[in-house]
Design a protein that fits this description.
Helix content: 25-40%
Strand content: 15-25%
CATH topology of the largest domain: Cobalt-precorrin-4 Transmethylase, domain 1
Radius of gyration: 23 Å
CATH architecture of the largest domain: 3-Layer(aba) Sandwich
Shape: globular
Oligomer: single chain
Largest sheet: 5 strands, parallel
CATH class of the largest domain: Alpha Beta
CATH superfamily of the largest domain: 4-hydroxy-3-methylbut-2-enyl diphosphate reductase, catalytic domain
Order of helices and strands: EHHEEHEHEEHEHEHEHHHEHEHEHEEEEH
Number of helices: 14
Strand order of the largest sheet: 1-7-6-4-5
Number of strands: 16
Length: 411
């Protein structure tokens, strides 16, 4: 529980915070205490490289907390400091990182849904309660329900997500159906989908290229209507009519998807619409806009640079198993070298055992004999929702597996 000696201010029942709560300095000091890492500072200052005996560790040059995540966590700290005596809740995970979400619980910030839920849901709220909207955003019905209750709202929705919302809203305004490359069950995509219907628009969520090809097959008359509706039953807006709603489409993305895949899907759908309507009229039927956030792209570019310029024996990617951007970093690295996705440095059990989630799997497993004896070169990065202290902890654990203390090598 954060105990900051501030006088609570009593806001109106409709108070809404979207640009902080006026306690940035207080929050920054607490964030520094909780998430700072001297090891990460050293790596930044020494070409992102640290030698630990006969082990070389290379950190990707873009890693960890992005601006949107940092802002969301900071606002949660500000909210706890501003309202020390009030009940505070998150609608769901603030970000996809187990360490950060457990820290929220320690700060007496509850969860209204999801795996960290620790009490009643929205039905138990009152106008005196503070509710934090996570970086992913919330659906329109969720927001309307909270406003109807009159809760104090702290909105941490990421700016990159808001840009996607503007895009799909414009598609709806112009009569285009939003085709969203994302995971239909992901909080961000659910929120974006609800924005697509705000003005009476429709949406379709596709997960990958194979689903984009199925959409193309229907548009070109190669897939029966019934088969299409069965395939995408959980991924379409209410009342979705593929004969009507796939006449004009606009492509958008969940901001944390793999950029190259999103671009390829957009091109595939564009070529499909050209085949149906001809190139000279394509603008009347198809639109696209790359809505992958810059931080996601930067981290993907950095990991590709690392695995292609260093001869790595192992790549470690740290971040929540339900973190989309972290999963894609692991998948990228795995194309070049042996890669382990860890949700916490504690997964580095010992020199023989490592716990990790294999690419393409939803289950954590244990692997053995993962760390070779003798000289070894290890790459390291972290998803956009992973704080620096977890990166530092990973380096410390690697050193201890070789009987060393990382801090002794920071020279």
């Amino acid at each position: 529980m954060v105990t900051t000696p501030l006088v609570e201010q009593t806001p109106s029942s409709q108070q809404y915070y979207q640009k902080g709560l006026g306690l940035k300095k207080v929050a920054q000091e607490l964030l520094e205490q909780d998430y700072h890492s001297n090891i990460v500072d050293y790596l930044r200052a020494h070409n992102f490289t640290l030698r630990l005996g006969d082990m070389d560790v290379h950190l990707a040059q873009e890693f960890g907390f992005c601006y949107g995540v940092d802002r969301a966590v900071e606002y949660a700290y500000q909210a706890r400091a501003k309202f020390p005596a009030r009940r505070i809740f998150l609608t769901g995970e603030i970000i996809h990182n187990p360490h950060v979400n457990r820290r929220m619980l320690e700060m007496n910030i509850g969860f209204l849904s999801g795996q960290y839920k620790n009490g009643g849901g929205v039905e138990g709220l009152s106008p005196e309660d503070v509710v934090i909207l996570p970086a992913f955003g919330v659906t329109m019905p969720e927001l309307q329900r909270l406003r109807a209750i009159g809760c104090i709202l702290v909105d941490t929705t990421c700016g990159s997500v808001l840009n996607v919302w503007k895009r799909v809203e414009q598609y709806a305004r112009d009569g285009f159906t939003s085709v969203i490359h994302g995971k239909y069950y992901h909080e961000e995509t659910r929120a974006t989908s609800s924005q697509a219907t705000k003005l009476g628009g429709a949406y379709l969520v596709i997960r990958d290229m194979s689903e984009a090809e199925k959409v193309g097959d229907f548009i070109l008359g190669k897939l029966p209507r019934g088969e299409f509706l069965k395939r995408f039953a959980c991924c379409i807006s209410s009342g979705f009519d593929p004969d009507l709603h796939l006449q004009k489409i606009g492509v958008a993305n969940q901001t944390t998807m793999l950029s190259s895949e999103s671009l390829a899907i957009a091109e595939k759908l564009k070529q499909t619409m050209i085949a149906k309507h001809h190139a000279e009229t394509i603008d009347q039927y198809f639109r696209t806009f790359d809505t992958i956030c810059s931080a996601t792209q930067d981290r993907q570019d950095a990991i590709i640079k690392l695995v292609t310029t260093q001869k790595l024996d192992i790549m470690l990617v740290i971040g929540g198993y339900n973190s989309s951007n972290t999963t894609h970093l692991a998948a990228l690295a795995n194309q070049y070298t042996k890669t382990y996705h860890l949700d916490d440095p504690r997964c580095l059990v010992n020199v023989e055992v490592i716990r990790h989630k294999p690419c393409g799997s939803n289950t954590e497993i244990e692997s053995r004999d993962w760390l070779p004896a003798g000289p070894v070169t290890i790459g390291l990065t972290a998803g956009a929702s992973t704080p620096n202290n977890k990166i530092g902890e990973a380096v410390s654990r690697l050193a201890r597996l070789r009987g060393l203390e990382a801090e002794d090598w920071l020279i």
